[in-house]
Amino acid sequence: MIYINKNSLKKDYKRKFLEINGKELEDGTKEQQYEALGSLIRDYVAKEWLNTNNKYKETGEKQVYYFSMEFLLGRLLGSSLMNLGIRDICREALLELNIDLDELENLEQDQGLGNGGLGRLAACFLDSMASLNIPGHGCGIRYKYGFFEQKIIDGKQVELSDNWLRSGNVWEIQKRDKSEIVKFGGDVKMETIDGKLTFTQVNYESILAIPYDTPITGYENEVVNTLRLWSAEPVSNEFDFSSFSRGEFLKAIEYKNSVESISLVLYPEDSFYEGKILRLKQQYFFVSAGLQSIVRHYKKYNSNIYELDEKISIHINDTHPTLAIPELMRILLDEEKLSWEEAWRITQNTISYTNHTILAEALEKWPINMFKKILPRIYMIIHEINERHCKDLWNKYIGQWDKISRMAIIADGFVRMANLAIVGSHSVNGVAKLHTEILKKKEMSDFYYLYPNKFNNKTNGITHRRWLLKSNPDLANLLKETIGEGFIKHPMDLLNFEKYLSDNNVLGKLRNIKLNNKVKLSKEIYGSYGIKVDPNSIFDVQVKRIHAYKRQTLNCLRIMDLYNKLIENPNMDINPRTFIFAGKAAPGYILAKNTIELITSIANKINNDPIVKDKIKVIMMENYRVSLAEKIIPATDLSEQISTTTKEASGTSNMKFMMNGALTIATLDGANIEIKDEVKEENIVIFGLTANEVLDYHNNGGYSSWDIYNSDNRIKRIIDNLVDGTYSYDREKFRAIYDSLLKYNDEFFVLKDFDSYIRAQEIVNELYGNKLNWQRICGVNIAHSGIFSSDRTIKEYATGIWGSDVLYKNL
Ligand code: 26V
């Protein structure tokens, strides 16, 4: 424990402020006060960080490395203070210095090095590993620019760069002495040395990888793990005077820029794969640097390279870090001089892989020619892996050429990363039960029948420390008052809350907590957009990436339908609703951008119509990110989880909402199914096609959106509204959406699910009418959310995938 009291903290803080700024605390700006506090907290963490690392060295425990192109950490000041157990002390100390801790916490730039679910999951996992005493560390890229900042101007998304490092980053420590060299391009020289065929990469380009380490603190347990992010630099940063005198100054600058471009910016696409050279370079860059440093560290403390797989687990978050497989092979073969068989055994045992999407357009595959040129030795190794793999297939599946070609790693001019990840790892998992079943029985069925034991499910989770304790302190306090503090370390204890749900006093408190959170959000909305929303209305929320399969369009269409009904019958008896949207569209995704325009146009029309003024409002909040989610989710009554069934691998915001006492309206997709199984049918509202029905349409056809359009007047009217000037003078404005629904036969079954969605919304309206019952439902959701803590998920990974005696012992 760090022993700090209010007075020592005040003293330390003033000293730190003076050291950094050369002036007194009270003369500083808020930004300077934030920075000094952050630096001080990092100093406090430093000792436990060192101790943790020393302990890992002494015990020789198995280390887990989570490789991910994305880590969406959000802000770290509040969560670090909370995990160290000094947030309250700090708040009081600062108050005595006339500083509001919340204000400083709000100044922190989000660390937004991720697109959405996959990156946030990686952040939740780091938090859980540290909190469960698991030696687990992150490895990724230190993008100079994170996920773009979204502004809505004239109703449209505008992207600004996210220069998050502008005022420095107090949490990271640069470790120049732990740099690695990553080699690109060149040729491979083959020669026989001492009778052994050896491979040496020559004429390559060297790039320096500099690690920046961020401490990941466990919850009140003195564990501090590491997130190591790599930044690219030219090997020599010296100014090249000889080229300057030859007039080649610009060339030197250009070279520097081209090297640094590798870690310059996070790709903002999360569902359309494009074979961009820079992205391939990014992938190899961090994987190679990460693996080299892991093996170097391993060798420092272990003499037997053959036992590497007993001491190290490497997990790859989607296919993006799959090059870890051939890179580990390269190190073991070319540098450690192991035989192919030994290197392969170690590699397979070390590596495990999670799949996060079944959208075909997101599957990574690289053109062979491009790949060979950039990574010649790695290509050779993949080629050999493929040869051996296909030979096995030929022996097993005699004459079944179609199947063998589907399963090949290199085929049709491409290197297929998912196939490589499956073949080169010992474990392949999906992220929710349905998703894993689809992988096994459909998307990856060939591989499942070949290696049934590799496949397993690990339903996602979220850290209840950030998403309940930190983001909803009033609810956390009510839980502490009722069921005690046990749930913090053992989230399944939340189940005890169910006992209190017959107590009207507790239900009343739940209601007040939610109302308070809604008042706060209303103020935020008013402050940012000048729109007044009624905290007593139902806060009906859909916040997530904008994507056709997530069906923000379905949400829009029912709002349009409700608006039509209210215009016709202004006295219609409904509970007033505030529809809240937030989310970013990939910059090149036209349909998603069009959807944002539709939302803002509907908002514009409805919010300015006096007829419906007291009944409905529509808000599109800008720049959705972790810190905004922390404000919206605790203030939500209704959580919209309405993806086309089979398309959302898991979803994780669904879990955050239930944990904060929202009712879910959902399709039976991803983890929604498991949420339903937990809370039971009467505490969630389900609608829409089932997985089998969707798969049946996919296999056998038979769906016609035109038929629905022509047979349902409500639907015809709102679809026509898209192009009849109701929402824009420019009648062509929503043509892309209109066409996707009619001309292209509504790929995501929006019209098919419309009627059942409307009926589900009517049920929500009725439920909300019975206040006590509504609160009880919210309480049931909270009580059953413990299973969706990422602590549960991480325990399953640790015991089921990364397993070792030490990991078992810890749990
Ligand atoms: C995919 C791609 C495709 C190629 C271009 C760059 C790029 C960047 C990121 C991704 C990741 C997309 C996969 C993803 O985020 N899946 C989400 O993972 C969540 C955590 O498992 C899960 O809850 C969501 O359902 C799933 O959509």
TrEMBL record:
The keyword Phosphoprotein belongs to this UniProt entry's keyword annotation: yes
Gene Ontology biological process: glycogen catabolic process
Listed Pfam families: Phosphorylase (PF00343)
Keyword vocabulary terms for this entry: Carbohydrate metabolism, Glycogen metabolism, Glycosyltransferase, Phosphoprotein, Pyridoxal phosphate, Transferase
One Gene Ontology MF term: pyridoxal phosphate binding
Protein name per its UniProtKB record: Alpha-1,4 glucan phosphorylase
Residues bearing the modification N6-(pyridoxal phosphate)lysine: K656
